[in-house]
Automatic annotation (TrEMBL):
Cofactor(s) needed: pyridoxal 5'-phosphate
Organism: Gallaecimonas xiamenensis 3-C-1
Name this polypeptide is given: Acetylornithine/succinyldiaminopimelate aminotransferase
Pfam families cross-referenced by the UniProt entry: Aminotran_3 (PF00202)
UniProt KW keywords: Amino-acid biosynthesis, Aminotransferase, Arginine biosynthesis, Cytoplasm, Lysine biosynthesis, Pyridoxal phosphate, Transferase
Amino acid sequence: MSEQMSVSRATFDEVMVPNYNPAAIIPVRGQGARVWDQEGKEYVDFAGGIAVNVLGHCHPALVSALKEQGEKLWHLSNTMTNEPALRLAKKLTDATFAERIYYANSGAEANEAAFKLARRYALDHFGAGKDQIISFNKSFHGRTFFTVTVGGQAAYSDGFGPKPGAIDHLDFNDLAGLEALISDKTCAVIMEPMQGEGGIIPAEQAFIEGVRALCDKHNALLVFDEVQTGMGRSGYLYAYQKYGVTPDILTSAKSLGGGFPIGAMLTTAKIAASLKVGTHGSTYGGNPLACAVAEAVMDVVNTPEVLDGVKQREAWFREHLAAINAKYDVFKEVRGMGMLLGAVLSDKYQGRARDFLTAAVDEQLMVLVAGMDVVRFAPSLVISEADIKEGMARFERAVAKVAAA
């Protein structure tokens, strides 16, 4: 084998499209909730690859599944199915409201499929003209042109030419606004049970129940984007189960593969029937490698031990954040559920979320932001109490530095 080329952060600027601005460090190895960079410096990971590394780095069950499948079968076209895809689909349908599964490679692709299905279902059952999609301001549903237009952040969709039409937005948790906007022309209402990129904003119980009732009244499909909240992150397999409100279509990705790219759309048999042969597809969707890893994720996560453990870890996180805030008074509140939490900055620190992220990296801790005013935490669901304590000690040092600046 030829010797590996030496690369650095400077290499990024030489060879990569400049749509990202990555940190100065380059991680090269991870184990559990710890990551090491090129210099051998060790970091605690409270970011989880943006809510992806649901079981941390290099979890033995996932490594084993990947190695085992890697020596059997890597890829087939969709003119054939495969065992890992079928086993995973069976486990997903057994554990949820869904009866049918469609596989993609990402959350954006799962949402693209969901939106296309909603439009096609409305056409099949109600005829032309029932095509309005209602979404919410600050929502995020992916970066394809359709999904980014449905998403409620115009900054991500502006500047690329004419946008797909019949898409309307209103404020999250505004039930009266939805009641005024929805009609028999609405084919679907799309929402995250808890807005992620928009600032870790949970749906109010009365709102999510009201949305379901309005969709039923107007024969509109209710689509839950659980790309970020799904696969155990809320302390339930999917957050809809916490709310007790069942969607017609649900999308899953991120944590579903534990770090291996996979997306899935879950729905009922009746609705799925509108995606007849040839109406939609994906070259890599249902890839045996991805499905084998996701099946291992499902087997570990969908257990009382892990799901109850998420609730315990949420309590530990909240206790530590409250103690830090008692000293430095930097947060208004901590929002969220399970291992997807957002510390909302107080008025004095408005717009400075990235300062906290940068200070955390300097203290060898990886965190996230959700907008300019929220520090976001999305760690492994099985992170140890010791790693939480160590990470929070580092976070406190970061907070102290920002507060003293």
